[in-house]
Amino acid sequence: MSLLEIHDLKVHRGGVPALRGVTFEVDRREVVALLGANGAGKTTTLRAISDLSRPESGEIRFDGKSIVGASSTRVVEAGIAHVPEGSRIWPEMTVVENLRLGAYAVRRKGSPIERLNAVFELLPRLAERAGQLAGTLSGGERQMAAIGRALMASPKLLLMDEPSLGLSPRVVDTVFDTIQQIRRDGVAVLLVEQNVVRALEIAERAYVLEGGRIVRQGSGEELLDDPEVRQAYLGRTAGAGSPGTEG
Amino acid sequence: MVDLLSVLASGILVGTVYAYMAYGLGLIYGVLRVVNLAHGAFLTLGVYVTWWLNATFGMDPLVSILITVPLGFALGATVERTLVFRLRDSPPVTTLLLLFGVWLIVRNALYLIFGGADRSLLTSYSLESLALGPLTLSIPRLIVSAFSLLGFVALALMLKRTWSGLALRAVAQDREAAALSGVPVNRVWAVAFGIGSALAMSAGSLMSLFYSVTPEFGARFLLKSFCVVVLGGLTNIGGILVAGIGLGIAEDLTAFYIHTGYRDVVSFLVLTAALVMRRADAD
Q1: Do residue B181 and residue A105 have CB atoms under 8 angstroms apart?
Q2: CATH assignment of A1-79+156-247?
């Protein structure tokens, strides 16, 4: 049994079908990438898991239990944390307040201080900025704060929506290093990324969405070598000039 | 000179109550993005409940805060759960009209129960004053001002230190991000409306010490609350305190140096000017 199992998921957005029957799964301690063009349904998939969009039909099972129709609060309590696109931190709260509130769903379990220290250890930059208003952080620091906030909920699965969007190459490196560290700590990651090469390099497996359907799936390496994927998402057929494919 | 100091002192004391009275309106707007036109109803209800408790049981208005706070919370949370919540996806004007309707119902219910006569209460300390050097300060105003400040401190601590306070601020700043962190947004809405109404009703308790009340009481003070909240920054606790005190001083200066009849014109003028300036900022 996989950690997350999604079966024939259909979601409408504004009356128009956005997902037309999507089936995939994420195993424990696995990074799975969800790729596709804009409007393919990547964000909608993550939103449906977190109950920000209600599915028309289909099944979402987490840890063996159905979570379709469960409130966002229940979803977080079950062990799914979500880093939304554009970080969405609370700008007029301090970094440490942002992090503390990330533990809202699990506030009666375990020690929030221990979790806070673990997050500071993983993202030392946040410790330096702890007392600062989150609105004053740089783009990269905001993303780190959003990741840290999600980890405060002690998730088994982390949903990440475009974590590298708009960040400088060096910060993008840090984000991807952090994702790998999160996996090593035993958390599965479902990753939506426009940086296809970097995503496929760290993902065990990946799915390609197109028009609300999954049109391709395979291991990260397979898709990285797939000529059609290269054509569609990398805009060129060989790895020349793309630093991500040299290693 | 002494006149001026007295006027300033009195303005500051009244201003803290204005701030306390207005804060609920700002809190509800910040968290729910709803303008609570029933705010005046809760203020009026607070004064009447306090007056009635005093007239019937001889209860001190300051003691009746222990009743108006929980009563206000319960009434506000109920109005949110049963009425406002149903319109959460409608255009803002729908909620505005709904809450205006709530106000009309409360106002007319008060006419039915208490009639239209002016009601006021008198305590043993109502007419006492304190001589502070050349200044004479009214004891009820001092007490009410101290209670308002106390209420502000309690509220600030709640927003800063408790899970509920953090959740309220998170929903105000980014509702969806709050939901993704497991904050039950629906419940936070009801709590915010409850706290805002509790503040309004307990402000009524405090104001009963120096205002008489008719069912029309709320209209005047809803306007002043708008003025304070717009001037102070909708959810900015410090800004609202400063704005409240500013309005209190401006009113007392006007009443003393121009004419008492112009006291209530000040809030109109300030509100208009503040809105025009905000508008200019936005452009």
Answers
A1: yes
A2: 3.40.50.300
